[in-house]
């Protein structure tokens, strides 16, 4: 079972930046895909970005991520990051890390990001 712990959330003003971290309990090289999702109040959880064990990346298909968020990984630290720049109030949400491993999905407990206007 993969355990995930997110960190790095907090309160930031619009236009600011945050870097979220997701630490996994085992080598992320053995995990097929790791991703960041977010869920705003009253809305469904949605994909922000994902990265495969081979390093390929996928970002959400709409416009909210474009040019502002970057997913990366540090294999030595078993950690995946989400760098978020030019944050907007509509980015306010709980951000979750997910691991897809051996046909199972594992979720962290989430980290809250609040962007003030």
Order of helices and strands: EEEEEEEEEEE
Task: Estimate the strand proportion.
Answer: over 45%
Q: What structural class is derived from the secondary structure elements?
A: mainly beta
What is the quaternary state of this protein? single chain
Low-confidence spans: none
Count the E strands.
Answer: 11
Average pLDDT taken over every residue: 94
Number of helices: 0
Taking all Cα atoms into account, the compactness measure Rg is 13 Å
Distance between the termini: 40 Å
Main pleated sheet: 7 strands, mixed
Q: What shape does the CA trace take?
A: globular
Classify the helix fraction into a percent range: under 10%
Q: How would you explain this protein's 3D organization?
A:
With 117 residues, this protein is mainly β. 0% of the residues lie in helices and 54% in strands. The protein has no helices and eleven strands. Strands 2, 4, 5, 6, 9, 10 and 11 form a seven-stranded mixed sheet that branches. A hairpin with a 2-residue loop joins strand 9 and strand 10. It is globular and about 40 Å long. The relative contact order is 0.33.
In short:
The chain is an all-beta fold.
List the helices and strands and how they pair.
Blueprint: E1 4-7, E2 10-13, E3 18-24, E4 33-39, E5 46-52, E6 57-59, E7 69-74, E8 79-84, E9 93-101, E10 104-107, E11 111-116
Parallel strand pairs: 2-11
Antiparallel strand pairs: 1-3, 3-8, 4-5, 4-9, 5-6, 7-8, 9-10, 9-11
Provide key terms for this protein.
4-stranded antiparallel beta sheet; mainly beta; 54% strand; globular; 7-stranded mixed beta sheet; 0% helix
